[in-house]
Each structure stands twice: as structure tokens, then as C-alpha cells.
């Protein structure tokens, strides 16, 4: 199930701005409505990216939520509605709510990162930051390329050493660990010599002698521009709501959560919902368009 | 002629990046702290993450503006890739993480700045394999710090390839008392609503066994690999004239 969702097909800048905004506001705002919104849409988008397999991950998150919620009142004793006492320490309802909010935040962030790992591949990241710092992005590109090669080489060295009987000769920890270190050491010798040749080759082909260009298969088209504008507008709406106190929520020592009689909460949460549903909506619209096009044939 | 204009071009860029790096540390970090102080309640995670990102970015920018030679760049890339790929050699021991050990070796052999670069880059790249998350900035900073400290301690003559046991003990101890707790602080800030003695104690104590295993792995890596790897890096430096002052 490696279906490419429509939002991943947008320009990497669009993807990156979306994730920055999402994680920033999820961590910033502890209002329950915002957190639940973030959690639900994170789960929906993750399911869209992963397909049915994603369900297992999402169900697997529930112990994290329960543990974080249940532990919080043990550490935080603020609040006066005690559910029960553990020795002298009260286990309060307010702290339990606070723990649930934190658990919600944590699982939402984990799920957003789970879909981030699928949509923001390393080449997209390089595209966003590559041209701003040529040296670092060159190093990163080289490392991304070398790691699989080195892993392959490490396996080759291991096999070769096993052939001549130099791997796993005994059952003790020492005799199992030492050969692995020898593999790393051999890998280092090989890699360093290769690195010098690479560097010389780069030099003789004129690396660093001019302004660097960067290859990319991504383009920034009208729909990307529109999406960025929409995201910026929505983020400004959320920020205004935050600054106006519409998203105020505190749990301990006293439960103070702004309710829906505050217009700023309405504005903030609508902006937040629209912002977070961008990837899901884009995907659904694309799917519908595809069905319509197919049915015409 | 062409070369001259390129040099001027680089020089112009150098000063801009230098100022950005300086600005991040002098203005960026206090600004973040001030802002979070204004915001009040429980912004520990956001604040700390922004401060750490400023710190890492300042290091990266100062490396960038130095215009390192091609060979130096490739050498750092190779060491990062070895640090990340080294786990492939220890497939039988999934809990065995030699990555910080190799970062420390790199710091000792190539200097504090190269150590920080290797540490932060290999943490970043290895997270592309094992998954990015809220911990990425913390790991980048902590691993970079390990390389940086190893570099300075080597300059001071405390951690050297020759004094194997002392080096390994310091490296393993550094994981246990500094690098591990820095990573635990990330857990503390994401999972706890208040910072009090109980929360701090609970998080650090539950992290202790993991840090002990991690520290032991780094101890063994330094004990066994530090001497041969530093020798190899030194040999490469002598053989090809790398990393020498102009």
C-alpha cells in the first residue's frame, strides 16, 4: 500500500509549511477542541496515506494516551476535585483532564510525524533547504547516498569474514561483539580512501568554482501559490484567536477553558479545522475528480 | 579573473551568514525565551525546541560560512555515514547504538567543530531511517554536543586515542550524565504538565536503564574502536594532507 496521496504531489514548500504550522499550533494550544480536532484529522490523513495498515498504528497509540493521562495526576496535584487519595496525595480530576489533553497532544504530534515521514522524503527536504546552504546540503546529499552503500558494504564484509571463519566464533558476548567492531573498522578504512577519491574527483570537475545549481523535479505552480496563501490566511486567523484569548485553556490548579460563547474561539477553531483538513480535502477532491473523469469514458 | 569574482562573491556571502549565525545566538535565543516568558504557562517544549534549533543552526551556519575545503566536507560526510550505517554491523544487538561513540571519535580526530557537525548531521539523517519526531532537534543537539565536547577534551589532552580506558570511561560517563539526560528532558517536556521534583525524578529515573545501556555501548565502542579509527583518520590526514591549516 504505497499510494501517493494528492497532497504529497504539491510543492515541497507547501508540505513543509503545512507541517510547521500543524506541529507548532498543536504544541502551542492546549484547548481541548483544538487538540481533538488535530488528533482526529491527523488520524484521518494518516489513514489516507497508509491505507488500512495505518489503523494498527492508530490503535497502537491508545496505550500512550492512557498512560500519559493516568500518570499526570500522580505528578501534578493541582486542582481541588479529588477523585481519590494515594496516601497524602490527591488524584484530582483537573490533573486527569490535563493529562488527557497532553496525551491527546502527544498522540496527535506522533501521528502527524508518522504521515510527515511518508510525505516529506529526504529529497523534498533537500529541495526546500538545499539552495539556502550549499555546503550543508551537499554534505547531507552525500550522507543520504552513502548510508545505503555503507550498509551494503558492511554486510559484504560480514559475509566475507564469515567465509574465512572470523565471525561469531564463540557464544560469549565478547566473541560476538568484537567481530562487529572489526567490520566497522574495515568499513572505515575502505570508506575513507573512497572519500578522498570522491573529493579529488569533485575538485577536478570544478566543484566550488561557481554558483551551485540544484536539480529538482518539483515545480511551484498556481495551485501551490493558492494553497500557501490560504494557509497563511488561516494561520493568521488562528494566531489572532490565540492573541485575543479565544483559545485560552488552563487545567490546574483551576479548570478554565474558554467556551463557545467567545466568538474568537469560533473563528480560531474554524480556521484550525480548515487548515488541518487541507491535505485530506485535496486528496478527496482529487479522488472525486478522478471518478468523474473515469465515468465519462 | 573569473576566480577573483568568485572569491568576492563568497566573501560577500560569508559576512551575511556570519551575521545571521551571530544574530541567532545573541538575539534569537533571548527573544524566544522572552516570548515564552510572556506567554506563561507550559510552553517548555516549544521554547526549548526553538532554542535548540537556534543553537544547531548557528553551528551549521558558521560551518557554512567558513567555506570548508571539498576534502573536509567529504570526510565529514563519510564519518556521518559510517556513524549511521554502523548499526548495520550490529544487527544481532538491536539495543547496541555505537553512533555517539563514532561521533566522539570523529570529534577527537577532526576537532570540535567537525565533531558537532558529524553528531548533528548523523542524528538528523538516522532519523530519516528510524523516523523523525519531536525528539529530532534534541537528538541533533545532544549528539552534536557529544562530538564537540570530545573534540575539546581531546585538545586538552584528556581524551586521546592512546589512553583507551580513560577515554572510554569519559565517553560512557558523558552519555550517562549529560547526553542521556538531555534526551530525557525532551520526554519530560512532552509528557509532563508540571516541572516539579516528582516529575523530574520519575522521568530521569525511568530513563536511567536506557542511558546505562547506551553508555555501555559507547564505552565499548570507544574502548575498542577509538585507537584504530583515530589512527586511520590520522593516516588519511597525513597521506592526503587533509584538514591542515592553510
Automatic annotation (TrEMBL), chain A:
<keyword id="KW-0472">Membrane</keyword>
<protein>
    <recommendedName>
        <fullName>Energy-coupling factor transporter transmembrane protein EcfT</fullName>
    </recommendedName>
</protein>
<feature type="transmembrane region" description="Helical">
    <location>
        <begin position="54"/>
        <end position="75"/>
    </location>
</feature>
<keyword id="KW-1133">Transmembrane helix</keyword>
<feature type="transmembrane region" description="Helical">
    <location>
        <begin position="226"/>
        <end position="244"/>
    </location>
</feature>
<keyword id="KW-0812">Transmembrane</keyword>
<dbReference type="InterPro" id="IPR003339">
    <property type="entry name" value="ABC/ECF_trnsptr_transmembrane"/>
</dbReference>
<dbReference type="GO" id="GO:0005886">
    <property type="term" value="C:plasma membrane"/>
</dbReference>
<feature type="transmembrane region" description="Helical">
    <location>
        <begin position="95"/>
        <end position="116"/>
    </location>
</feature>
<feature type="transmembrane region" description="Helical">
    <location>
        <begin position="16"/>
        <end position="47"/>
    </location>
</feature>
<feature type="transmembrane region" description="Helical">
    <location>
        <begin position="264"/>
        <end position="285"/>
    </location>
</feature>
UniProtKB/TrEMBL annotation, chain B:
<feature type="transmembrane region" description="Helical">
    <location>
        <begin position="165"/>
        <end position="183"/>
    </location>
</feature>
<dbReference type="GO" id="GO:0016020">
    <property type="term" value="C:membrane"/>
</dbReference>
<feature type="transmembrane region" description="Helical">
    <location>
        <begin position="19"/>
        <end position="37"/>
    </location>
</feature>
<dbReference type="InterPro" id="IPR009825">
    <property type="entry name" value="ECF_substrate-spec-like"/>
</dbReference>
<feature type="transmembrane region" description="Helical">
    <location>
        <begin position="44"/>
        <end position="61"/>
    </location>
</feature>
<keyword id="KW-0472">Membrane</keyword>
<feature type="transmembrane region" description="Helical">
    <location>
        <begin position="100"/>
        <end position="129"/>
    </location>
</feature>
<keyword id="KW-0812">Transmembrane</keyword>
<feature type="transmembrane region" description="Helical">
    <location>
        <begin position="203"/>
        <end position="226"/>
    </location>
</feature>
<feature type="transmembrane region" description="Helical">
    <location>
        <begin position="73"/>
        <end position="93"/>
    </location>
</feature>
<dbReference type="Pfam" id="PF07155">
    <property type="entry name" value="ECF-ribofla_trS"/>
</dbReference>
<protein>
    <submittedName>
        <fullName>ECF transporter S component</fullName>
    </submittedName>
</protein>
<feature type="transmembrane region" description="Helical">
    <location>
        <begin position="135"/>
        <end position="153"/>
    </location>
</feature>
<keyword id="KW-1133">Transmembrane helix</keyword>
Amino acid at each position: 500500500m504505497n499510494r501517493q496521496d494528492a497532497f504529497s504531489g504539491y510543492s515541497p514548500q507547501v508540505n513543509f509549511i503545512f507541517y510547521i504550522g500543524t506541529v507548532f499550533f498543536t504544541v502551542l494550544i492546549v484547548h481541548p477542541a483544538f487538540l481533538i480536532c488535530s488528533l482526529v484529522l491527523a488520524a484521518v490523513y494518516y489513514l489516507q496515506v497508509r491505507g488500512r495498515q495505518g489503523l494498527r498504528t492508530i490503535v497502537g497509540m491508545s496505550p500512550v494516551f492512557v498512560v500519559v493521562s493516568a500518570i499526570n495526576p500522580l505528578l501534578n496535584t493541582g486542582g481541588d476535585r479529588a477523585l481519590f487519595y494515594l496516601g497524602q496525595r490527591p488524584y484530582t480530576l483537573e490533573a486527569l483532564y490535563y493529562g488527557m489533553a497532553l496525551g491527546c497532544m502527544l498522540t496527535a504530534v506522533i501521528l502527524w510525524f508518522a504521515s510527515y515521514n511518508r510525505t516529506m522524503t529526504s529529497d523534498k527536504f533537500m529541495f526546500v533547504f538545499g539552495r539556502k546552504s550549499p555546503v550543508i546540503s551537499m554534505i547531507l546529499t552525500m550522507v543520504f547516498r552513502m548510508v545505503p552503500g555503507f550498509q551494503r558494504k558492511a554486510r559484504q564484509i560480514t559475509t566475507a569474514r564469515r567465509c574465512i571463519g572470523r565471525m561469531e566464533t564463540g557464544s560469549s558476548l565478547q566473541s560476538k561483539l568484537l567481530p562487529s567492531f572489526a567490520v566497522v573498522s574495515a568499513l572505515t578504512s575502505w570508506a575513507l580512501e573512497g572519500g578522498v577519491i570522491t573529493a579529488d574527483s569533485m575538485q577536478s570537475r570544478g566543484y566550488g568554482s561557481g554558483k551551485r545549481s540544484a536539480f529538482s523535479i518539483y515545480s511551484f505552480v498556481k495551485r501551490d501559490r493558492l494553497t500557501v496563501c490560504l494557509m497563511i490566511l488561516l494561520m493568521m486567523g488562528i494566531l489572532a484567536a490565540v492573541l485575543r484569548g479565544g483559545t485560552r485553556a488552563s487545567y490546574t490548579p483551576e479548570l478554565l477553558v474558554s467556551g463557545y460563547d467567545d466568538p474568537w474561539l469560533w473563528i480560531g477553531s474554524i480556521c484550525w479545522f480548515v487548515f488541518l483538513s487541507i491535505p485530506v480535502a485535496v486528496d478527496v477532491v482529487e479522488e472525486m475528480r478522478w471518478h468523474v473523469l473515469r465515468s465519462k469514458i | 579573473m573569473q576566480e577573483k569574482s568568485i572569491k568576492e562573491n563568497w566573501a560577500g556571502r560569508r559576512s551575511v551568514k556570519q551575521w545571521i549565525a551571530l544574530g541567532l545566538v545573541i538575539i534569537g535565543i533571548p527573544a524566544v525565551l522572552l516570548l515564552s516568558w510572556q506567554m506563561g504557562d507550559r510552553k517548555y517544549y516549544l521554547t526549548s525546541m526553538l532554542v535548540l534549533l537556534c543553537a544547531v543552526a548557528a553551528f551549521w551556519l558558521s560551518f557554512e560560512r567558513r567555506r570548508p575545503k571539498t576534502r573536509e566536507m567529504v570526510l565529514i560526510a563519510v564519518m556521518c555515514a559510517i556513524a549511521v550505517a554502523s548499526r548495520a554491523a550490529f544487527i544481532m544487538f538491536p539495543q547496541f547504538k555505537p553512533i555517539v561513540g563514532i561521533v566522539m571519535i570523529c570529534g577527537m580526530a577532526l576537532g570540535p567543530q567537525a565533531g558537532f557537525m558529524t553528531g548533528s548531521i548523523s542524528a538528523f539523517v538516522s532519523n530519516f531511517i528510524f523516523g523523525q519526531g519531536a525528539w529530532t532537534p534534541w537528538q541533533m543537539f545532544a549528539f552534536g554536543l557529544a562530538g564537540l565536547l570530545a573534540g575539546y577534551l581531546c585538545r586538552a589532552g584528556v581524551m586521546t586515542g592512546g589512553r583507551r580506558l580513560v577515554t572510554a570511561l569519559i565517553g560512557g560517563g558523558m552519555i550517562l550524565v549529560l547526553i542521556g539526560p538531555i534526551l530525557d528532558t525532551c520526554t519530560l517536556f512532552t509528557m509532563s504538565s508540571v516541572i516539579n521534583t516528582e516529575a523530574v525524578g520519575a522521568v530521569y529515573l525511568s530513563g536511567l536503564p536506557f542511558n546505562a545501556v547506551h553508555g555501555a555501548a559507547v564505552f565499548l565502542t570507544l574502548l575498542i574502536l577509538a585507537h584504530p579509527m583515530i589512527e586511520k583518520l590520522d593516516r588519511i590526514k597525513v597521506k592526503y594532507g587533509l584538514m591542515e591549516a592553510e
